[in-house]
Design brief:
Layout lengths: L2 H27 L6 H4 L20 H25 L1 H28 L7
Length: 120
């Protein structure tokens, strides 16, 4: 066997042993909570006594706003490379970006007309 293979195997085994030792140490050194009632209580954002049940339904508006945000947020990712190379792309690149932004604006108008952004 080559020296590199032996070294890689030794490093792999050493990392495994170190991880096992660290996990064992956290079991003994870490805080112990023997009270299972407190351990199984709900804790969400600082509220220890939640209001309502888990069967409450959310309005579809939350999902529409989230999807709209993702749609218009991803378009910014396409604008960064264009902004970096705007000089190299020239007038054709500028025209193509105006078409892209125009399509996004049409999508925004469509979302506005469907009243996906208004809350009742």
């Amino acid at each position: 066997m080559s020296a590199e293979l032996i070294l890689a195997s030794a490093i792999f085994i050493a990392i495994g042993v170190i991880l096992a030792v660290v996990f064992m140490l956290t079991k003994f050194i870490g805080p112990q909570n023997k009270d299972s009632v407190m351990k199984n209580n709900v804790y969400e954002s600082g509220v220890t006594n939640p209001v309502g049940t888990t069967n409450n339904r959310f309005s579809v508006k939350f999902y529409l706003v989230a999807i709209s945000f993702l749609l218009f947020d991803v378009e910014v990712i396409f604008m960064f490379p264009w902004a970096v190379n705007v000089v190299d792309l020239g007038v054709a690149g500028l025209f193509k970006m105006f078409i892209f932004m125009g399509l996004l604006f049409i999508g925004l108008i469509y979302i506005y007309k469907k009243k996906a952004l208004s809350w009742d």
